[in-house]
Each structure stands twice: as C-alpha cells, then as structure tokens.
Amino acid sequence: MRFKKLNMLLLLFLGISMSTLAQSKKKRIDEEFPTPIAFPFEFFGDYAGNLRVSDNTGTLANIPTELSLTKTDIDGEFEYTIVFLNGKDKEQLTHRLFTIDQEKGFYAIKDNQGLEFTAILIDGILHSMFEVNDMLLFTTLQFTNDEKVRLTITRAKKILNSRTKKLKEDQAKSSNVVLVQKALLSKVRN
Q: Over the stretch 88-121, which tens digit does the pLDDT of each residue have?
C-alpha cells in the first residue's frame, strides 16, 4: 500500500514536471508581441533597414531607411523620425506622437508638414487611416520584442467611374491600391 502511494506521488510529480517543461519550450505570445502598456516606452532607440516600394507591376525600389523613436520633454508626447536615404539625398519625416488615452490605445500623430491624424494601438500595432487629396493612406507601425520594427504604408486612390457615381450613400464605395511600401527595420542603438 505504501509502495502504491509512493508510485502515485512520483507519477504526479513527473506529470507536473513534464507539463511545466512543455510550457516553457513554447514561445509565449506576449514575448513575441509587446503589450499595449509597453508601447512606446520599451521601444526607444534607432532602427535601420530597407523600405521596399511596390505596385501591381512589381518592386519599384528598395530604399535604405532609418527610424528613431524618442521621448520629448512633454509628458505623453513622443517623436519618431523616419529617414529615407536615396543616394546622397536624405528625406526626413518627423512625427509627433501624442497620447490621447494610453489604456485604450488612442494616439494622435502630427508630421512636420502639418498633417494630423489619429491612430489606435491594437495587438501591439499602431494603425492609422486618413485621406489626403483623394488618396487614402493606411499605415501600420509594429514594434516587436525581438527589436524589430515593421512599417507598412498602403496608398489607395478612390475610384470614380460611371458605376460609382450612381452609388447611394449607404452603398460601398471602393478604392484601388496603387502603392505599397514595407520596411523591416532592426534596432541598431538604444
């Protein structure tokens, strides 16, 4: 009887150990993707990589790209700068990221050319969508815990033809994607 209890206890201990070992080998989702509370504080620094510009004909360009994320002197305000390197030329876009409600993931963004739009953080990805001169822009900015940044900018042009002019207000209107820009950037400095 005593031997049976010892065996049962040993089996139970072995089962718990194996279960714990199996769980520790799995990559946890919160290790791969940041939590909303971590954004943007955990991701300050400089990143570098390439931006691939494509349309329906294929890849148009690969542009060396840098991104820098820093805190400003104002609480709840951050700055990120994107630099596109084209030969000897540099195009720099500076954005201010304003916290509206961090808990809900609401932010506002203003660039150095006066454009202002809102963004929302969902599953560690900052999403925004806005319209400029009949062009729709969809952007995503994702910081991962493996010190990478994924930036995607999708441009779409509104379709105006004889069929869409006759659409009622409650009917779906469409746009054609005309350009996709994707960058994968790796952290180079804190």
A: 888 888 889 888 888 888 888 898 888 888 999 8
Q: Are 185 and 65 in contact (CB under 8 A)?
A: yes
Q: Write down the domain spans for the chain.
A: 34-189
Provide the whole-model pTM. Answer: 0.70
Residue 9 has pLDDT above 80, yes or no: no
109, exposed or middle or buried, with CB in 10 Å at 0-12, 13-18, 19+?
A: buried
CATH of domain 34-189: 2.40.128.20
Q: What is the pLDDT of residues 34-48, one digit of tens each?
A: 554 467 777 788 999
